[in-house]
Amino acid sequence: MALRIHHIVLDCVDASRVATFWSEVLGRDVLPDASADAAFIGAGEAGEPGWLFFSVPEPKTAKNRMHVDFESADRDAEVERLLALGATRVADHDEWDTRWTVLQDPEGNEFCVSQRPAGD
């Protein structure tokens, strides 16, 4: 039996704030049963996993050991949209025939946006 991703989970100091940011990033609503300790974005139409946000007392202090990579046909435009939503640019890379930007959400969780190769 193969595994499939069920949820992407982020620990955060302010679950509501971080869930609202990711709701805008993903274009999906935060479900109304959110509490002060947790928030949830439901699964996407194309089978994308749901996202859970849990409040924890300690802030993030080091680089993520695992992160989410996104792909866009127009990386520059997507990065600008994400910056306007509250993301922070960490670095731009151009290696291994791929261009990507490392960003952080409002609590410092890293994620990447890469440029989809032409013709894909």
From TrEMBL:
Protein name (Swiss-Prot/TrEMBL): VOC family protein
Out of the domains of life, which is the source?
Bacteria
Q: Where is the VOC domain?
A: 4-116
Q: Which CDD domains match?
A: VOC (cd06587)
Which Pfam families does the record cross-reference, listed alphabetically?
Glyoxalase_6
Family matches, as InterPro entries: Glyas_Bleomycin-R_OHBP_Dase, Glyoxalase_6, VOC_core
